[in-house]
Amino acid sequence: MSDNETKKHHIVIIGGGPGGYEAALAGTQLGAQVTLIERSGIGGNAVLTDVVPSKTLIATAEAAQRVAHAEALGVYFSIDGKKVKPKTEIDLGVVNERLLNLAQNQSEDMRDQLIQAGVRVIAGNGRLDGNHHVIVDAIEDGKSERLEAKTIIVSVGAHPRQLASAKPDGERILTWTQLYNLTELPEHIIVVGSGVTGAEFASAYRALGSEVTLVSSRETVLPGNDADAAQLLEQVFRNNGINVMNKTRAEKVVNTGNGVEVTLADGRVIQGSHCLMAVGAIPNTAGLGLEEAGVVLTESGHIQVNKVARTSRANVYAVGDCSTFLPLASVSAMQGRTAVFHTMGDVASPTEVRNVASNVFTAPEIASVGWMEQDIKDGKVNGFVEKIDLNTNPRAKMQGLDFGFIKLICSTGGTVIGGVVVAPRASDLIYSIAIAIENRLTADELARTFTVYPSLSETISNAARALHKPNV
């Protein structure tokens, strides 16, 4: 493809979340003309109302817990030379103001980077008009514009699912996007839903000092995650005073004026000051003209895509939470780059969901990648599992860690195919296992890689050594 032909390639991106942002940068890098349409702010939900704010809140909760547990490490607070037991006080108004400012600053930084790269950024709403045109309704002046595009990339994200019997009001009954309007710490927050979102906020608000009840319709928290990790986290939750109600479904939530009443399926009523509804998300695909353009959607409204993010229309791609891939910011970003590489004729490596590392930002964190132990038990893959508790790790002892483990999985041929880390900063520790899986390293090769002593990563090496099968 010549330079002139490349420059004529117009990519129109609807949605400026992680996928749309990365697609735009990749497009300009390859010489395409790029237009990005975003109605709320660059970064989308991930930056403005989801990942960045929630993880900032969790970072504050972690800081509060370090203060609370300092005495166990021999660190005391004193007044006039007399030891006092540390007690943390949380100003949630200040916390939320900080995290919202941080999110807004991050969004503005991303917008500046796009403009500097040569991307045309339009604040407005976009919808398909066939599979080669996009109609843009600008927010600032209300004018409409019809853009011709050689490639269209849809990156519109998702919004919190709502129940008719538990309508969020932004005051007492909340979605995860509304929590940051609170100025005072909830006295007793009832979290409905024990998936990743519910578990993370339950963990964070308990660490901040709220009484927490977690209502789970499943047998355990984090259904679908590693069973040992979920069981350990639930144990930690209970030890920390969280009231975990398993196999219990919330039927109705009512704002009583000074609190909430949650009616359960068995007729019981539990009372609290606030209720967080964490019952899933719905893709923002309605009204985009997708079906009229011949783009296939699933029953749930997600856009059906293949491993290079291509839809049923050859020149239309979809990335992120609105697609049928994993709803993770890292996956969305990778999809965005892959889509552009593919449509521009560059080298595009298909996204392998099995190689995606994910993390639950609870305390402790839970990170996983690749095949799981349950997959071996179900006969989906053959392999061996080695699990080592962190209470044998010298660095963990130094830090006063009571809970955690590292689990490594290899095939019968010795290749690393999966792993689970339950520990502080598991999101960082899982990276070495993800590299091993992506590059098809053997357990022996992983074991031969030097680690720092003392470190938590040393346990990954120990697990790899334990998986060594001698040649006999």
Task: Spell out the key features of this protein.
3 domains; NADH dehydrogenase (quinone) (non-electrogenic) activity; FAD/NAD(P)-binding domain; FAD/NAD-linked_Rdtase_dimer_sf; alpha/beta; 5-stranded parallel β-sheet; Enolase-like, domain 1; EC 1.6.5.2; FAD; 7-stranded mixed β-sheet; 472 residues
Structure description:
It comes from Rhodoluna lacicola. The strands form six sheets. A seven-stranded mixed β-sheet has the order 7-6-5-2-1-8-19. A five-stranded parallel β-sheet has the order 10-17-11-12-13. The chain has helices at residues 3-7, 18-29, 44-48, 51-68, 92-117, 196-208, 227-239, 329-343, 373-377, 394-399, 426-438, 443-447, 458-466; strands at residues 10-14, 33-38, 77-79, 82-84, 120-128, 133-138, 144-148, 151-154, 158-160, 173-174, 188-192, 211-215, 243-245, 250-255, 260-264, 269-272, 274-277, 281-283, 316-318, 358-360, 365-370, 383-389, 405-411, 416-423. 31% of the residues lie in helices and 24% in strands. Helix 4 packs across helix 5 and helix 4 (51-68) runs parallel beside helix 6. The protein has 13 helices and 24 strands. The protein starts with a helix and ends in a 6-residue tail after the last helix. The model has no long low-confidence stretch (mean pLDDT 95).
Brief summary:
Residues 10-336 form the FAD/NAD(P)-binding domain. The chain is of the alpha/beta class. The protein has helices at 3-7, 18-29, 44-48, 51-68, 92-117, 196-208, 227-239, 329-343, 373-377, 394-399, 426-438, 443-447, 458-466, and strands at 10-14, 33-38, 77-79, 82-84, 120-128, 133-138, 144-148, 151-154, 158-160, 173-174, 188-192, 211-215, 243-245, 250-255, 260-264, 269-272, 274-277, 281-283, 316-318, 358-360, 365-370, 383-389, 405-411, 416-423.
